[in-house]
Every structure is written in structure tokens, then in C-alpha cells.
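Input.
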Amino acid sequence: MFLGIDCGTQGTKALLLDAATGTVLGEGSASHELISGPNGRREQATEQWIEAFEKATATALAQAGVKGAAVLGIGVSGQQHGLVTLGAEGRVLRPAKLWCDTESTAENQRLLDWLGGEAGSLRRLGVAIAPGYTLSKLLWMKEQHPALFERIAHVLLPHDYLNYWLTGRCCSEYGDASGTGYFDVRKRRWDVELLRHIDPSGHLEAALPELIEAHQPVGYLRPDLARQLGLNPNALVASGGGDNMMGAIGTGNIAPGAITMSLGTSGTLYGYCAEPRINSQPSVATFCSSSGGWLPLICTMNLTNANGAIRELLQLDLDRFNALVAQAPVGAEGVTMLPFLNGERVPALPQASASLHGLTSENLTRANLCRAVLEGVTFGLRYGLDLLRDCGIHSERIRLIGGGAKNPLWRQIIADVMDAPVICTTHGEAAALGAAIQAAWCHARQDDPQASLEDICERCVSLDEETAVRPDTRAVAAYEQVYRRYRGLVNGLHGQLG
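Output.
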């Protein structure tokens, strides 16, 4: 048995996998709280991650009806781009800044200017640094909290921090490291000269974790923690990775020909490449995968959070929200929402705010507002899919994961907007499943260095044909017109915000 952990923005999920049969034996979850500020601050207390890890794991074990002593390995998936800083004694210095934090947007722009703009960043790193990446958070911390900055002994990503808590070892894996902004995705190494630009003393360079391959273990569970959690003290802790990289493994997206779409707080789209196919379009991040290749990826900052905001405003539960969406026609009678509540990465509008367009006394209805927000966030994903298609990334069917994938109405809207068939994986918690699969792979390679990740994925990943949806021809044609309206509004924002 292998334990997969997914530490996300809203909470932590745990999944217990029998890797021999591909059976998920038990699952558990526990929530996190967000620290928000009007200046774009989005942070979390790392203590919550640990508490949620313990609760979710206990629930998964109880549901499976098994003892933790049977767990052979642990894999951790974590939200990307976050900044966790530790002092010399190993204690967290301040709350973790998250992927959706845009407080360091100005610092990111200064760093981007120093790199020679997006083109210079792509040439140097293989990615164009964006607000939310870890790099600008470090510069922000240096300028806003100089005393704490001087105490930094370790710079970690969220999943790296949990691995440190589990094993006592500071290290990082190529996939998650790709999203820091100080990692060269072609050569798979830290860009220490870039960190010296922020801190010429070499202080930050010394705080970097050791880089390891995706199939390499971090180490073994600390004996005291094994007793505390009721787990096997000989459990191997795998390298783990970012939630998108683990989601790729958990959807079997480890070879060319698949596209995964994640419908969570944020929206992501990614496909596999065997080579670092760096694209001139800066919104496409060609991260390393956690399966030995590369994972061209786009990310939208607003998805279920925007849907939730409208539901809360109108005081609707999910069923009533969906019923209202179904009442409104394609295009919401001319109402268009640009749902950029957190700014936006794709389209690249970090300083944008959300807005409603096309309102009249006739079309201002609850149904149209609900339809407009769901269409608006879906158009952001379509914008990203167009970018991936331009990069040569294609698939016969888009594999859907995340909480939003459970909604059959939304699945149909996605199929129509994308003009592509969609299908859900059997296990919706793809990042936790991918982490457990990676742990099984890492464990298998201890005895057999040629052990195949593909074989484990074939046993453990399946598609749920009952969720398969094909695009409706008439809706596809109608949505093309509505999408053009959305693109026109986005282009106008680009002009206003520069």
C-alpha cells in the first residue's frame, strides 16, 4: 500500500492505494484557511498543512480499515510556486506565500525587466517568470521583511516543506522546481546567478535544497513521526512534486497524446513532451514533468473561486446554481463576465479585476449571471488550450480532473467551448493518486532500477466512460461567436492595462 498526499489551496487530501491491483482503498481530507489581503496577499500557515496531513491520513486509513504499518511509501503533491522559508533551527519564519499571491507583482516586473523581458526570461530559463512564481516572493521578502530574510537558512516549496517535515531532509524535484523562476528547465539546474542578483552575498544560493530525480526517494519517515502518525517507520518518502506534475501521473499523462484539464480553484491544462519544446508564447510554461520529460502547461488564476463568488453573492447552493445555468442560453443573452478576481495569468492580465459586460434591463437575471461566470472561466481555459494547440499539443479526448469535473453540465459546456470530447478519470483526486503512484514507482526502483512507471499507471489509472461527453455541433458554432466577444473584451483590457 502507498499513501498519496495532495496539499492544495483549499485543503489536504490523502489517498491509500493498493498499487498491485490499482484499487483505492481509502480517502480522507481536511481543510485549510487562506490569509488574504487587499494588496493581493494570499498566504497560509504551514501548521495547517501538517494538521490537515494528520487528519486526512487518519481518515483514509480508517476508511480502508487497515493499519498504517502496511504503508510502504508516501508521495506528496503540493501547490506550486509557494514560498516556505526556514531558519537555521528548521522553524518556519513566516506564513507561506502561495501561487495565487500577487503582492509581489511589482517585484516580478523589475526582475523581468532585468532579464530582458519575457523573451529574455524564456532564453535564459525556458519559462517567462510571472507574478506568483517563487522568485519575486523572495525579493518581496527581502524588501518587506529584511530581518527575517537575513535569517533564511532553507528556501522550500510547499511539497518540499512537507517532505522535510516527514524526513528531516531538504531537497526538491525537477518538476516543482521548474515553477520557482530560478530554475533552468532545459539544463535541469538552479540558476544561482539569478539569485545572486537578489542577494549578492550568496545567502540565498546556500539556502537552496538539493535537486533530485523524480524516481529518487527523499528518505525514510522519521521514527518519532511514524509513531505519531501510526505509519510504518520503514516507509519510503518519494520525491513527490507539484500538484500539476502529480496530476499528470494520476491521469496517465506521461507520454505524448494526452491533455489534462484540472478544474479547481485555478484551472490548468498540460500535455507531455519528451523534449523541452520551449515556445515563444510566454503564457505556456514548459515545466519539467515528474515522470522524466517535460510538461507544457498553462494556468488560469480564476476558476471555481469565481463560480463560488457568484454563488455566495446570490446565496445559492450548487444544485440551484446549476439549475440557473441550465435555464440561460449559450452566451447568457449577451452578458459576458471577465472573472479576474485574482488578476489573471492566462490571459496575461495580472493587474486586471473582474468585470461584467453587456448588461441591460432585460438580460440582468440570476440565470444569466450564473451562466456568464461559468462561461467566463471556461473561456479562459479555451484561451489556454489555443496556446497549447499552437505548440503542437493535441489529444483525442481531454481528461478532466478536479472538483468541477464532477459537474455534468460544466463538462458539456467545456466540450462545446473546446470543440473536443472530454472524459473524467475514474479517480477524481488525480494529484493524490499520482503521488501514490510515484511512491510505488520509487519503491519498486529500489529493487529493480528498470521498474516502469508506465506499468504502474496502466494498473492504477482508468477513464470513466460514463462521464464521456462529445461536443454538440450547434453549441460549438454558437460558442465560437461568444468566445470572439470574450477575446475582444480581453484585447481591450490589454490595451487599457498595457
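The longest strand covers residues 23-31.
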